[in-house]
């Protein structure tokens, strides 16, 4: 067993260890190689597992078909001029800071331009969504919440111009919450709500909703719907949906705190993905593990260009549209 392979399974526990492990681009590339090809280099062109020839600037050449690649080619780091050490530094900060950090803070921390910091964060967020493939199960609360404004007049906000986010939360017995999933939807009609549920909740699960008609067709898709109808006296929603209420207030606090509330609707889903990645690993004691997980996802997520993220990433390519599939 080569010691370097063992090293690839390691993750730094402190910033000091991080700095020691990744002093230069070469160390970063070696680490990424182990994450990307744990069984050894696989040529992206001919798909053969071989030992590549190594050239300068981290170029890997397949000895069979002579295809030239690099560890970052075909990943979210593809064709960026940002050094790997900067990517790593950003990944470290975004996973170890308790509440993550804004592009503005990252810009200051790394000494890069705002643009570089911002696009790195956006690319990492796309990588984060890959980590959330397993659908929620058991009892799942689902409800919509409004992001970016204060609700007025006791209305639920359905059909308003503010950003509507559907939230699904696993409810544990006797108490506590499991994982979450979220989606920014254009409106709260069944056309948007049903595909979301089908994408993120396993059929057979018990789905807890309020009396909203948008959820009426859930039983047709294999779910048991439990309706909690709010009394006409106007009980606050959180009485019946404690999980969604809790997650939604954490989300809003995170957006206001870490990101100063300045999120454009076109980018909202990216932030929801980061929040989800973070929330679903909230009990993880090792932040370094989160860092490694993020990089693992980064090397298996396809290239993302700057144009892909500039006006809001097209998230539908990650959404499975479960209704049509079934
Ligand atoms: Zn090859």
Short description:
With 326 residues, the protein is an alpha/beta fold. The protein has twelve helices and eight strands. The protein has helices at 3-9, 15-21, 25-36, 84-96, 103-110, 114-130, 190-200, 242-257, 268-279, 287-300, 306-310, 322-325; strands at 53-54, 60-61, 68-69, 139-147, 163-171, 177-185, 206-209, 224-227.
How does this model look, in words?
With 326 residues, the chain is α/β, with parallel strands linked by helices. Helix content is 39%, strand content 13%. A 5-stranded mixed sheet has the order 6-5-4-7-8, sandwiched between helices. Strands 1-2-3 form a 3-stranded antiparallel sheet, with no helix packed on it. α4 packs across α6 and α5 crosses α6. The site of zinc ion has 8 residues, from loops.
Break the fold down into its secondary structure elements and pairings.
Elements lengths: L2 H7 L5 H7 L3 H12 L16 E2 L5 E2 L6 E2 L14 H13 L6 H8 L3 H17 L8 E9 L15 E9 L5 E9 L4 H11 L5 E4 L14 E4 L14 H16 L10 H12 L7 H14 L5 H5 L11 H4 L1
Parallel strand pairs: 4-7, 7-8
Antiparallel strand pairs: 1-2, 2-3, 4-5, 5-6
């Amino acid at each position: 067993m080569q010691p370097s392979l063992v090293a690839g399974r390691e993750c730094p526990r402190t910033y000091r260890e991080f700095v020691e492990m990744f002093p230069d681009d070469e160390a970063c590339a070696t680490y990424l190689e182990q994450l990307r090809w744990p069984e050894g280099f696989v040529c992206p062109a001919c798909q053969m597992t071989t030992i590549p020839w190594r050239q300068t600037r981290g170029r890997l050449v397949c000895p069979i078909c002579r295809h030239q690649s690099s560890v970052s080619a075909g990943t979210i780091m593809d064709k960026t001029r940002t050094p790997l050490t900067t990517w790593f530094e950003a990944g470290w900060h975004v996973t170890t800071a308790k509440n993550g950090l804004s592009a503005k803070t990252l810009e200051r921390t790394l000494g890069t331009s705002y643009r570089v910091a911002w696009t790195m964060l956006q690319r990492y967020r796309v990588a984060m969504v890959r980590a959330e493939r397993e659908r929620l199960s058991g009892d799942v609360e689902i409800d919509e919440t409004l992001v970016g404004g204060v609700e007025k007049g006791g209305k639920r906000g359905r059909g308003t111009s503010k950003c509507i986010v559907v939230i699904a939360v696993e409810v544990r017995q006797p108490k506590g919450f499991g994982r979450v999933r979220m989606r920014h939807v254009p409106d709260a009609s069944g056309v948007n709500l049903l595909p979301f549920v089908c994408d993120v909740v396993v059929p057979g699960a018990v789905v807890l909703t309020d009396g909203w008609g948008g959820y009426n067709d859930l039983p047709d898709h294999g779910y048991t719907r439990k309706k909690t109808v709010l009394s006409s006296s106007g009980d606050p929603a959180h009485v019946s949906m404690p999980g969604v209420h809790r997650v939604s207030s954490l989300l809003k606090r995170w957006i206001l705190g870490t990101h100063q509330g300045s999120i454009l609707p076109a980018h909202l889903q990216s932030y929801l993905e980061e929040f989800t990645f973070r929330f679903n690993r909230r009990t993880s004691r090792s932040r370094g593990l989160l860092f490694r997980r993020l990089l693992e996802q980064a090397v298996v997520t396809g290239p993302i260009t700057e144009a892909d993220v500039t006006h809001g990433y097209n998230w539908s390519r990650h959404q499975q549209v479960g209704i049509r599939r079934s």
